[in-house]
Design brief:
By secondary structure, the chain is of the alpha+beta class. It contains three helices and five strands. It has a five-stranded antiparallel sheet. Strand 2 and strand 3 (about 40-45) form a beta hairpin. It is globular.
């Protein structure tokens, strides 16, 4: 499976304990952010999240206004192989 650099970055971040969340505002705007254990965050492009969902590598709990995303079984297996290859 061919993944982009940002897609790999998100999967590796999830593997290493970061949380991916979507934040929906009353205005209708929806943003995606990776939350680190040290409370820092970084924005993730919507297209990256959508692609990972379409590939069944992440799934959402679909909560409003802040949904959390986690690795699927397939995503977990793939990212572990990516992490091993990077060692």
């Amino acid at each position: 499976m061919k993944l982009s650099g940002p897609q790999k970055d998100v999967l590796l971040a999830l593997l290493h304990g970061q949380q991916l969340k979507s934040h929906r505002y009353l205005s209708g705007i929806k943003t995606f952010r990776l939350h680190s254990p040290d409370a820092s965050t970084r924005t993730v492009r919507r297209s990256t999240v959508v692609a990972l969902q379409r590939l069944d590598l992440i799934s959402s709990n679909q909560k409003f206004p802040s949904a959390a995303y986690c690795l699927t079984k397939t995503g977990n297996q793939l990212v572990r192989s990516i992490a091993e290859a990077g060692k």
